[in-house]
Amino acid sequence: MKSRPSRRSVLAGLLGSGTAASLPGAVWAQAAPRRGGTLIVAADSEPRNLNPAIVASNGVFYVASKVIEPLAEQTYEGNGLAPRLATAWHGSPDGRSVTFTLRPDVTWHDGRPFSSADVAFSALEVWKKLQNLGRVVFKDLEAVDTPDATTAVLRFAKPTPFQLIQNALPALTAVVPKHVYEGSDINANPANTRLIGTGPFRFVEHRPGQFYRLERNPNYWDSGKPYLDAIVYRVLPDPGAVAAAIEANQIQLAAFSSVPLADLARIGRVPGVAVVTKGYEGITYQLTVEINHRRKELADVRVRRAISHAIDRKFVVDTVFLGYAETATGPVPKFDKQFHTADVTTPGFDPRRAEALLDEAGYRRGGDGVRFKLRLLPAPFFEQTRQFGDYLRQALRAVGIDAEIVRNDTPGHLRAVYTDHAFDLTVGSPVYRNDPAISTTILYQGGLPPGVPFSNQYGYNDPQMNALIAKAAETVDAGERSRIYRDFQKLAGEQQPIIHVAEFTFISVTRDRLRNVANNPRWATSNWADAWLAS
Amino acid sequence: MSRAWTVARRRLLHSIPVLAIVVLGMFALLEAASGDAVDAYLAVSGGDAGLVAQLRQEWGLDRSFLARLGAYLAALGRFDLGWSVAFSRPVIAVVFERAPNTLLMMGAAICFSFFAGTLLGVAAGVRPGSVRDRILSALALILYATPSFWLGLMLLVSFAVKLSWFPLGGIENIGMPETGIARVIDIAHHLVLPVLSLGLIYLALYLRLMRSGMVEAWRSDYIRTARAKGLAPNRIAFRHAARNALLPVVTMLGLQAGALLSGSVVVESVFAIPGMGRLAFEAVTQRDVPLLLGVFLVSTIMVIVANFCVDLLYAQLDPRVAVED
Asked: DSSP assignment of A88-128, as one string?
C-alpha cells in the first residue's frame, strides 16, 4: 500500500511505543500474507438491524461490511475508489443515468448467482425507499435498467450529479440478494440480522451480549482471499476491559477508539501492541457548536462570530482530544481534497475581538459581568463532546456569556434539540461522508420539518445559503459543483450558522500480529479480505 | 407443609397490587423521560421526517399514553410481555436468555458472601476487641468501601491480564464452545472473577452484621446463664451467640436474594456478562418500555418469592417467629 506521510501517521509514530511495531500497516505489508487464524476484535454495540443497505452507519458496517459488499470501496490510491461488486462506472453528461459494469461469476453465500437484478432491487427497493442516507441521495432514482446480467443502468428523473453518486458508492450501495428479500416486508426480514451477502466472510452466529462469528467464504470472487479463517466480535461494553483484553492478547483489535484516549500512551508501550491513528479519514467526525437561531441574540451574526472568536481550537485539540484531532474551519474536513477550501473567514481565537463584537451588537456586560444567559446542551455521544461542553462554558464566561449546562442521555438530547428545539447552544458531532450533499448540507438547508435528527433544526434559514445548496444539488459538472461547495464553505465561514471547532477520526489499538491494518480510509468499515495474522 | 402452601397462595394474591404498582410506576417514569424509542433508534442512523413518522406508527408510539398502557395491560393479562423494539424480538425471549446468567452469577456471589461473611463474622465476634477482630473489621470496612467496578478491574488486571489464571470476561469460551461437563467447568471458570468482585463486597456486609450481632449477644442474660452452667466456650459461641446473631443476617440475605435477578450493571459490563443488569440499562437508554417492564416484573416476582422463603427460614431459626398469614 501507499504510505501517506500525513500528520496523523507522524502522530502514530510519536505516540506509539516509538519502535517499528507501532508504525501502521506500511511496514508490515511487505511480508507474504499467511492464511488461517481467527481474528478476535472488540465490539461495543449490537445494532438491532445489521443490514447495511438499510442502516448505513459505522456500527453496522463494522460487522456487516465483511459480509455484504458495496459497489466500490474508498482507497488512498488514484481517484479514491477501488472496485468491489462493480468493476467500472460512468455517468451520462446530462446527469440522468449512471451505468455500472458488474463483476461476473460472483455468488451469494447461499450459492445463488449474483446479477444486475440484485443491484436493481437493492437500489429501487432498499436504498431509495428505506436507507437513512439513500432516501436523500437516491430520491430521484426512477428506474434501473438491466440489459444483461453484468450491467445495471441507474436512471434519474432529475439530473443527479455523477460526482455525488461516486462519492456515495462506499457507504450507500451495499447490495443485498433480491431472491431473499423480494415479496417480503424488507424491514422485518430475518436476513437483516442473519446476513446473506457476497463478501469475503459468511455470517455464522450472533449470541446477543456475547459475540458475532463470521467465517471465511471459500467461494469469494477474489480467489485466495480472505486470509483469515474467521472473525469473532466480542461484545465488551467496558472500555477498561477492552484495554485489558488487548493487553492480555485475548483480542487483536480495538477499533473506533474503544480504548480511551487517556490510556493510549500507556498501552502503546506494551510490547506487541500498536496504536494506529490512520484508516478512518473517510469517516471523519466534526466537533461543532450548533446554534438556535430562534434566540434573538444568536440570530445576530456578530454574536455568532464572537462565540467563534471565544473558542481556542488549538487548546481544544490538545486538551480535550489529547492531540488526536485537528482544528477545523468549516463544514468540509481537510482530508477531502475534492471540496475542501482553506480560503474562509472563520473567526479564530481572539477574545478581545469577541468582546468588541458583543458590545457592538448591543449586549454589554451587566453589573455582574454577564451579557446574557444561554442553555448549553452538550451531546452525550462522545466523552469529548461532553468535555468540550465544559470548556465552552468557561470560554463563553470569559467573554461575558453565562452558559448553563443541561445534560441529557441520547434519546433525551435528540428530543430536546431536534424536535422540541429546547436549547440555545448544543455541542454536536456530525459525520462527514465524503460529499457535502450526503449528510452535511442538510445541516444548513432551511425549511425542514421538525423531528428530523441531524438536520437543520436550528431555525437558520438564509436565502443565499438555500440557493447555493439547491444549485449544487442539480449541478452535474464535477468542477462546477466543487466550486459551488467552496462558495458554500465561504458563506458558512462568514455567517457561522454552525461553528466548526475540530475534526476527529478514531484510533485503533491492535496487536502487531494483525497485518494490513488501516490500508484504506474506511478501514474499520471495509471488508478485511486482505487482513491476516502473523504467527 | 400444607400450611405453608396456604400462606404461599395468599402471598401470591397480595403480590398482585405490588406488581400493578411496579407496572404503572415504570410506565409513568419512562413516559416522563424525554425522548422515546424512535429518538434512541435515530441516534444511530439518522433519518428523514417520513422515516420518523413511519417508525413511530410501526412501534405504536404515535398513540396516547393511556392507549399504550391499556394495550400493555391487556397483553399482560394474556401473560404476553410484549415486543422489544430494541432487540426486535419478544421480550420474554430476551429476558429468559439473560436470566440464567444473572441467576448463576448473583446466586454464587450471594452464597459465597453469606457463608464466608457469616463465618468470618463469627470469627471476629467470638472475642470482640481482639487483634483478629480488629484485622477482620478493618478488612471488611475496606472491602465495603471499594467500588465494585474498581475491584472488578483490579481482579481483571491481576488474575486475568498479568497471571492469566482466569479468562477476561464473557460467560463461556467463545472460540470453541464446550459441551457437557466441560462446559459446566468452563462457565464456572469464567464466573470466578465476577463472583469474587461482587461477593467480596457483599461479604463485608455479612461480616459486619454477624459481628455486631455477636457483640450484642455476649452482653445478654442467656449467655451469662450458659456460662454459669459451665458450658464450653465454643459451644456458647456457636449454639447460643451465633444462632441469635444470625437473625439480622438472614434478613439481609432476604433483601439481597431479591436482587438475584436484577443483576449488576457495573460488574456485568466489566466482565462482559450478558445479564439482566445490562439488559435493564440498555432498555432505559433505548427507551424500550416493554423490555424494561419485563425485566422489572421478573425481578419483582423474584423478590416476592425470596421474601417468602426468608420468612419460612426465620420460623426455623427462631420458633418465636411464626409465619404470618
From this structure: EEEE-TTSSEEEEEEPSS-B-TTSPBP-HHHHHHIIIIIIT
- Specify the long-range contacts of residues B217-221, CB closer than 8 Å, at least 24 apart: B217/B241, B217/B242, B217/B244, B217/B245, B218/B125, B218/B128, B220/B244
Grid cell of B234 as nine digits: 465454643
pLDDT of residue B2: 60
Q: Which residues contact B152 (CB under 8 A, 6 or more apart)?
A: B193, B194, B197, B266, B267, B270, B271
AA letter at A441: T
Cα-Cα-Cα-Cα torsion A324, A330, A333, A336, nearest 10 degrees, comes to -160
pLDDT in tens, A192-224: 999 999 999 999 999 888 899 999 999 999 999
Interstrand relation of A425-428 and A372-378 (parallel, antiparallel or unpaired): parallel
Flag whether residue B190 sits within 8 Å of chain A, measured between CB atoms.
no
Contacts of B58 in chain A (CB under 8 A): 187
Does B271 touch chain A if contact means CB atoms closer than 8 Å?
Answer: yes
Distance from CA of B204 to the nearest CA of A (A): 25
Max alpha carbon distance in chain A (Å)?
77
Whether the ipTM is more than 0.85: the answer is no
CB contact under 8 A, A57 and B45: yes
Q: Could you tell me if B291 lies within 8 Å of chain A, comparing CB atoms? A: no
Neighbours of A342 (CB within 10 A): 9
Cα–Cα dist A223/A220, whole Å: 6
- Those of residues 69-98 in B touching chain A at CB distance below 8 A are 85-88, 94, 97-98
- Nearest residue, CB atoms, A48 vs list B39, B88, B269: B88
**Which has the minimum average pLDDT: A22-26, B132-136, B246-250?**
A22-26
